[in-house]
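TonB-dependent receptor
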Amino acid sequence: MNYRLNFVAALFAAAPLAATAAPDAPMSVVVVSATRAEHTSFDLPAVIDVVDADRIGAAQPRVNASEALATVPGLVVQNRQNYAQDLQISSRGFGARSAFGVRGVRLVADGIPATMPDGQGQAATFNLDMAERIEVLRGPFSTLYGNHAGGVIQLFTRDPRGAPYIETNVSAGSDGMRKTDVNTGGKQGAFGWLLDGSRFETDGYRAHSAATRDQAYAKLTFDTSTTGKLTVTASGLRQDDTQDPLGVTWATFQRDPRAGEIDATDTQTPKRTLADRYDTRKSIHHTQVGLAWDEKFGQDRLHVALYGGNRSVIQYQSFSKAFQAPASHSGGVVDFDRDFYGIDANWLMVRPLGDGQLRTTVGLEAGKSNDARKGYENYVGTTFGVKGNLRRDEEDDVRNVDPYLQLEWERGQWVFTGGLRHSRVSFDVDDHYLANGNDGGSVDYRHTTPLLGALYKVTPTLNVYASAARGFETPTLNEVFYSGTGNGFNYRLGAATSTQLEVGAKALAGQDVRVNAALFQVRTHDELVVDSSSGGRTSYRNASATLRQGLELSLDADLRAGFSARVAATVLRAIYDEAFTGVAEGNRLPGVPRASLFGELAWKDADGRLQAALETIASGKVNPDDANAATPAPGYAIVNARVQANQALGAWRVREYARVNNVFDRTYVGSVIVGDSNKRYYEPAPGRNWVLGASVQYQF
């Protein structure tokens, strides 16, 4: 009951803002994600939110995308307090069941996919220090990006411009958090450059959760003509021995949210936690490079992007049956080296048609990832957390080839949109370790996703729209590895398909208030769920139909006397629409809150030299399992506060900020691990915590 009272209280606290709330950004922003060309978001029959650079850096250390994306309705972005497993991101309930990384939501940075062809992505590769904006596209329009179901999150770094500069940012906070970032950039003639390097360190809020992350980024631009530009980007991420605190049971969370789960099989006194005994950890080395060419030919435009990279991971897991490991077990150490590359090319044509204008985009996207994957026992003799005997050796290939077409016809007060994408995703596993059976196999998935949308301009300040699409989502590589019988490759596992419907309205009240509202429904067939988990192998199956129905509302406005505010609210009914073994019809989808809210009241002086804000973040309860039998993570409401000061002294720009999160020191579960076979579902969030930061920039 407390979570309901907290959530209702948060809604009432934000209600006064709804009459007058306001953004710092312009009321009608330009986006590219929905149509792959510049377009005002107000005139699109789609839900798309833009998080600008001011919001990304709003008294934040710019470590996790969750810092900024909490402001977007329909999106749930949780910091697991576990840098070994990345953020947990779900959009309209898609992606919540991912135990690590991001699935169900497509991630893109500067045109380079941060999501592999199988649908698994990594948000940690986003460079937030150089971000100019993040676009979040949800609903039917996002299906034109292929293999996913929930939406697209696309980050754009700023383009080099102006006189050369150099900047240093430092921050420090609770639990030994510290970050240093140095960047430089500028443009001279036709050549522009942007270089950035940072180090982030934390001792971690939870036991055994320390991490160190080094990131580097470079962006070079060349004006090839008055209408053309060549852009080269390169980035790298390095995390060595990032500690994994694992999830905990409900009893452990109640006893001590910081504590780890005790290993009952440990013979020491006192018994060690699983994380300590097995020294659970992950090392990640990720590098990538991209090349993009854009050229305009009158109103037409050509875009060609090529990319490639490498990702190496070694992860030490906990496995408490080390000396009784079944022959089928692939080991407690995951070790893979991945090469990936791809292309995205499209041609935009603008032509008159009847009394209107037709915009046509024709494109092709193709990608491939290749894993040299091995598994080892995580013990030698009685020593745990070390690489032991080989248990797995295979080569994994995943490929996609996706031609697509998008049309937009604008005539008078109407905007009609249509699209078509045909996706082919292929999996091929070649097993070289046959002592535990042959786990090799291959499977192809093919699907065509159509889109239709229409927008009507009721008045210059009110647009209404409707859209519909079919989408699909293949299993990830990890989900096709094993079948439910404990045997090898699960070539019978099908892709989930969805029918998405949406209606909405966008309204402007002068230059001061903007309201977006969307009603949506998504019916999914062949939803993927856990089939069995034993002997170190987790298998999946197509189980059931699901239904997602919801409302998203965002309101921005500009108050007088320097005040501004934002409200972003989501109500979501996400259920199993058909019963299957152990799960009743009407059960809630795990990992998905019934409602979520972000509310902010901010102030800044006329010159923008001093800024302050109060934030409210609230969420309904979350079930961690399909059967809805486990204790739900209770709902919560927390309050954050921030203040920032800016000074300009000749060629120098100085900024200082302070932030306090969870001001009232609430104890709550920040995220859940859906369907954990050991019932260690819960990942606790920090109590009251703080961060201080400063930056200095000099422009030559």
